Amino acid sequence: MLNFFQLILIYAGIYAIMAIGQNCITGYTGMLSLCHAGFFCIGSYATAIMCKTFGLSFWLSLPVAAIATGLIGLLIGIPTLRLKGDYLCIATLGLGEIIRNIATNLNPVGYNSIPRASLFGYQFASRNKVAFIILIWAFVLIFYVLFQQLAHSRLGRAMIAVREDEVAAQSNGINVTKYKISSFVLGAAVGGIAGCLQTAYTLTVQPGSYTFMVSVMVLCTVVLGGMGNAKAVILGAFIIQLISYLPQLTGLTNVIPAQAKQIIYGLLLVVMMLCRPQGILGRDRFRYGDPRTRREKLHDFFIRPAGKAREARHENP
After folding, report:
1. What is the distance between the terminal CA atoms of the chain, rounded to a whole angstrom?
2. Whose CA is closest to 290, among 301, 303, 281?
3. Residue 148 sits in which domain range?
4. Contact partners, residue 35, CB within 8 Å, separation at least 6
5. pTM greater than 0.70 (yes/no)
6. Domain holding 298: CATH number?
7. pLDDT by residue (tens digit) across 260-282?
8. How many structural domains are present in the chain?
């Protein structure tokens, strides 16, 4: 039981990182993308190649994976982000499958026996799950803080404006294409880092692990928790992984078939869309500060209460 719960925490952290990247694309900018499995694949393969072929450490392969995935996201984003809605969804779905098939054709077997990640002489071994839980959730916390700051920045506000109304955003001087591509590149880079962490844990990379269902699970995570809410997508990742390991946790592996979790995902999404379409926690309500000046605030604090008291005395002598 403890072993499965530790696995849930590890994979919930990895999927939470992917979901934070997906949330940047879908939650902040409103683009329906289904190629996050492709970014996950690129990050994993970049780490495997850097560590095994070139002998780089995990920490040096991490920025390489992020940059490589971000560049692929840029190359994909420039031609495809002119599309909208269903057309963008279909295009990104096809691109995710293209990335997986290219990886399969380049190396059908994948990579095994990848060198372990180490920090200050300590090697992260797969059997020591507690160390990986701390490592992965440290990355989750870092990305949570970064994307919360992003949402409150000028870039984040522009992305949210594009999501709400592209025409209104463009009429107010926001370069819609620029912010869409920026969102896509950021989301892709974060997906690549999630792939890097997955490789560090499993020490193996196989092209069959990056199917279309991975993209669907990441999108389900964002929709289930609440689009545009970083806390919500982390919660959604934990729930999705809990459902994934439900047969093992309940000891009903002989009763519940492996395909049952896909049915549970589908039912869960149908129920959520009917009962709470905004997700479990809903969208984040951002407050960008009080628009009043410092003098107006001081006036309201000191002068207005005294004025109201005088008015009350005049009314009730």
Report:
1. 73
2. 301
3. 2-315
4. 76, 92, 93, 95, 96, 99, 215
5. yes
6. 1.10.3470
7. 777 777 787 788 878 888 888 88
8. 1
